[in-house]
Amino acid sequence: MAPQSHVVHGGVQCPSPEKWVPFEWDEPKRGKQIHGEVSVVRPFGTSGNLSAGLWRTSATSPGCRADGSSTTIYSSPLGDETACVIDGTATLTVLASGKKYVVGPGSIISSPKGVEVEWEITGPSFKKFWCIWAGTSPVPNVALELQVNHVSDDPADWADYHFTEPKEGPLVAGELYFIRTSGSSGTMMSGVWRAGKGISASDLQADGTMTTPYTGVLGDETILLLEGLVEVTETESGKKHFFKAGDVIGLSSGMHITWQSKGPFSKKLWIITRDELPATK
Q1: Which Gene3D superfamilies match (predicted)?
Q2: Residue 166: left if φ>0, alpha if ψ -120 to 50, beta else—which one?
Q3: Strand pairing of 49-57 and 126-134?
Q4: Strands, DSSP E only, in 181-264?
């Protein structure tokens, strides 16, 4: 019997009202805070402390003004956070340096644990996808800096995604680029991946549909699907999961699945985590 941690997690961009609760946390220098509302999609992974979901603010959310605007200071005390803005705009100010970033739909925010950031959110509402990770293996010499990218970035270093499946051997499945290659603990990587017509894949149909087996050999993968339709089939049970752009997906390391991206194109923000550091040569 497969471990209970080996499941496919999934959640929609607009969960039902009962799935939202006030977001409460302890800010190390400021004590207990309550700001906005959170809906958890992925409560655990196969290792470390991994969670993911959605966070939102509005005029009726805790800590917000009557026009839906709000201000809060957040240092991601539970672990490194990767977030993507879905709706709304905000100005982020790193308190230690004074550096400011204006973020809006599609902005990808990489927040190292412990970096205090002031969030000045513009009304009437705001929503983001978030993934928080904390492992037990400290990474030396990590740059404690806020980083902001965008889902529409088109860097020159897109690369075919080559990987080796334990049962199927070497494969290629779409192409990707990295946003970050490490976090402050364990393995934490993130980036953007795409597949479809004209993009390399071991199994690519004329309409752009791409199919590949996958067991997450590098770690758990947490995804915000940015574009397209995806079907995930669990190998052991045959259970199928269907996802569309905007959905959150959680894949478990060691769980064999088949990933099928429907044509003509698909795109995702991915975060891979594992409670050990990558092997060094």
Answers
A1: Jelly Rolls (2.60.120.10)
A2: alpha
A3: antiparallel
A4: 187-196, 210-214, 220-227, 229-234, 240-244, 248-251, 257-261
Give the model confidence (pLDDT) of 109-161 as tens digits: 999 999 999 999 999 999 999 999 999 999 988 888 999 999 999 999 999 99
**HSE (CB half, 13 Å, CA atoms) of 158?**
14
Compute the average pLDDT of residues 171-182.
96
Q: Which residue has the tokens 């957040």?
A: 74
Q: Count Cα atoms within 13 angstroms, Cβ side, for 70.
A: 24
Structure tokens at 137: 């293996």
CA 69 → CA 27, 39, 61, 84, 228, distances in Å? 21, 20, 10, 19, 32
pLDDT band at 281 (very low <50, low <70, confident <90, very high): very low
- What residue has token string 């970035």? 153
Query: What pTM value is reported for the model?
Result: 0.95
Question: Using an 8 Å Cβ cutoff, are 101 and 91 in contact?
Answer: yes
Give the chain's length.
281
CA dihedral 23, 27, 30, 34 (to 10 degrees): 0
Please check whether residue 53 is in contact with residue 223, taking contact to mean a CB–CB distance below 8 angstroms. no
CB 129 within 8 A of CB 52: yes
Residue 18 has phi, psi (to 5 degrees) of -70, -10
